[in-house]
Amino acid sequence: MVSIITLTDLSQHKTVQDLWVAVHGNVYDLTSFAADHPGGIDILVECAGTDATEPYDYAGHGDDATEAMVKFKVGPLEGHQVKPKNAAHSIKAATTASGVSSWASGSGILGSQSLLVVIMGVILMLMGLVGKNVSLVDSFLGGILAASSVGSVGLGWGYFKFKETLKHQKEVFEYPAVIKRRKR
Ligand code: HEM
Fold first, then answer.
1. Ligand 1 center–CA 39 separation, angstroms
2. What is the ipTM of this complex?
3. H helices within 14-52, ranges in order?
C-alpha cells in the first residue's frame, strides 16, 4: 500500500544527504540526483523538505525532467489539490476566443454596413437617373460621400473592436508569469 506523506514528514528531509521535495502532489527523494541536477544542486537544497511545485514550474521543466523524476518518487503528498490542467491555456483560449468572436461580429456588422452603403449609393444614383433636379454626377458624388462617411464610421468601430482583441491577448500573455527556459 502506498503511504501518504504529510508536509511534516516531508520537512524532515531537507539536507543534501537526505533531500526530498514535493512536486505536483508527489514527493521525490532527490538525494542521489541532486548533484547531477541540470539546474544545480543549490536550488534543490533551497527547496528541500517543501512543496516545490511553484519553483519547479517557474524553472520551466520539460519532458526530460518529467521522465527523470519518476524513478525518484517516494509517494503522494497529503492534501494536494489538483489544479485544473492547462488553466492558463483555457484562460488564453477563452479570452482569445471572445476577442476573436467580437472581431468576427464586428466584421459581420461591417459587412452589413457596407451593404447598406451600396444600397444607399444605388438609390442616390437611381434618383439622379429619374430625378429632374439632380444630375447623374451629383447623385454619384452624393452616393460616394454617403458611402465613405458610413464606411469610415464602420471602419472606426471595427478598428476599436480589433484593438480590444489585441488588448485581450496582451493581458493573456502577461498571466501567468512564466520565464522561458534558456536554450542550451
Ligand atoms: C523533482 C525532480 C526534478 C528533476 C527530475 C529535475 C530535472 C531537471 C532537468 C532534466 C533539467 C534540465 C531542463 C529540462 O530538461 O527540463 C532541470 C533544470 C532546472 N531545474 Fe530541475 N528538476 C527537478 C526538480 C527541480 C526543483 C524542485 C527545482 C526548484 C527550483 C528545479 C529547478 C531547476 C532549474 C532552475 C533548472 C534550470 C533551468 C534552465 O536554466 O534551463 N528543479 N531540472
1. 5
2. 0.87
3. 41-46
